[in-house]
Write a structure and sequence with these properties.
two-stranded antiparallel sheet, 4% strand, elongated, two-stranded antiparallel ribbon
Length: 277
């Protein structure tokens, strides 16, 4: 009951906080022109509060459903997660271009192109998140008996989702690769900005203010990436342990904490926006 209460509180905080983020960006023209990727991330966090957390609570109560219905629900969770990752990646690339080519940035990154990029991020997330529906999932078995797709099962993520997909494709192929790229991009952003700030004497007052603003914003967005890694890596590490060492086992309480951390991340982003941007 305590777990459900905490999840409900996180869901409400995530939805209300991120709805405000979307409203602020949409009603402020200056933000609307450049922060569409943050809107994409906020929408992903809203979806976590509206869909993912309630679904996780229902499943934890022993939801009984058909095999492919359970698999579809599990794929939805993956799509939202991968959409968040690609939104973070898009933000990092956007900041990189803004610092690396400030003069050509407004010509290359138009508002229409940015929204097209957001659409492509979610399309790619949907395509890759639905891969298990095409066959990369656990066999329809319950104990030693084969079951059909019409039979009712107790819906559990690990019952329908193959762990090699979660480890090799979802973790190594998505999370590790994208986090590595984002870390490299932000490292380059900080290097370029600090190099230009060291030449402050040669810079105009407007240029100096622009660089200070970009440095502050880059630090805030890098903090969001750090929070994502901090909240998501424990669950992925536990999945790796279960995959490479099945006999090791994993306490249910540890898995619940790992899942809880992935949910609370959706409520943390809006605090970064409010206090640092």
């Amino acid at each position: 009951m305590m777990y459900i209460s905490m999840e409900t509180a996180i869901a409400l905080a995530s939805v209300l906080g991120n709805v405000l983020v979307v409203l602020v960006v949409c009603t402020n023209r200056a933000l609307r022109d450049t922060f569409c990727f943050i809107v994409s991330l906020a929408v992903a966090d809203i979806t976590v509060g509206v869909l993912v957390i309630p679904l996780a609570v229902v499943i934890s109560l022993g939801l009984k459903t058909q095999f492919y219905t359970c698999l579809f629900f599990s794929c939805l969770l993956l799509i939202i997660t991968q959409g968040s990752i690609l939104s973070l990646m898009a933000i990092a690339i956007d900041r990189y271009l803004r610092v690396k080519i400030p003069i050509k940035y407004s010509i290359i990154v138009t508002q229409n192109r940015a929204w097209v990029a957001v659409f492509l991020c979610w399309l790619l997330s949907a395509l890759t998140g639905m891969v298990p529906m095409l066959g990369w999932h656990n066999e329809h078995t319950q104990g030693n008996l084969s079951i059909t797709s019409d039979d009712i099962i107790v819906c559990k993520f690990t019952k329908v989702m193959r762990m090699d997909y979660m480890v090799y494709f979802n973790f190594f192929g998505w999370v590790v690769v994208t986090l590595t790229i984002m870390i490299a991009l932000y490292a380059e952003i900080f290097r370029v900005i600090r190099k230009q700030l060291n030449m402050r004497a040669e810079a105009t007052c407007d240029t100096s203010k622009y660089l200070d603003k970009e440095l502050k914003l880059a630090k805030s967005l890098a903090l969001i990436v750090f929070l994502f890694a901090l909240c998501w890596l424990p669950l992925h590490v536990m999945n790796c342990i279960l995959f490479y060492c099945p006999e090791c086992g994993m306490p249910k309480s540890a898995m619940y904490v790992g899942i809880f951390m992935t949910h609370i991340k959706s409520a943390l982003n809006r605090l970064v926006y409010a206090f640092r941007i």
